[in-house]
Amino acid sequence: MSTNQTPASRDHKHGPGETESAVKDGKSPPNHPIFDAIKSGMLVPVQTAAEDGPSVFSLRDDKGHTPAHWACLGGHTVILRFILDNKGPVDEASNNELGARPIHWACVNGHVAIVDILLQAGVSIDVVDNKGCTPLIVAAQYGHTMLAGYLMGKGARLQIVDRDGDNALHWAAFKGRNLTTWS
Q1: Which InterPro entries does its entry note (predicted)?
Q2: Reduced to 3 states, what is the DSSP secondary structure of residue 181?
Q3: pTM
Q4: Nearest to residue 150, comparing CAs of 115, 126, 176, 124?
Q5: Structural contact between residues 38 and 79, judged by C-beta atoms closer than 8 angstroms
């Protein structure tokens, strides 16, 4: 570690429990039905909510996250494809301090299929949030070795470091993962 802190003592939360203050941008009603529909994981309620038009996929919840963030966190491949089919954004950062993108949220829960869809849609494999974390670093932080192996196989750069100077291998070692899977 580059500081006297361990990785766990630094706040690198990428999921919905982030500690940033809520965003009120005046454009997005925080209780729009699209968010609950996506969280349910069922396509029909999402299709119903999308009857308002494809712009519904550009809305932000009260913490600044897009519908794509929630589809990726939940591993909802069919919903993510529906968002893509309707030209919804799938690579926008959250409007908050961390600035995580949907691919980071997919990595929190180890959703390889979601990450694959996002990469096929043109999302950068090495995109960083405001703390310098790449999808590979997030996968390592949350102990998802299968996803980390997938990302490395697709060309993720292992040498990228976060804002504190730690790379994915540092995080894997800290989390006690089998380092032979990282070679």
Answers
A1: Ank_Repeat/CDKN_Inhibitor, Ankyrin_rpt, Ankyrin_rpt-contain_sf
A2: helix
A3: 0.83
A4: 115
A5: yes
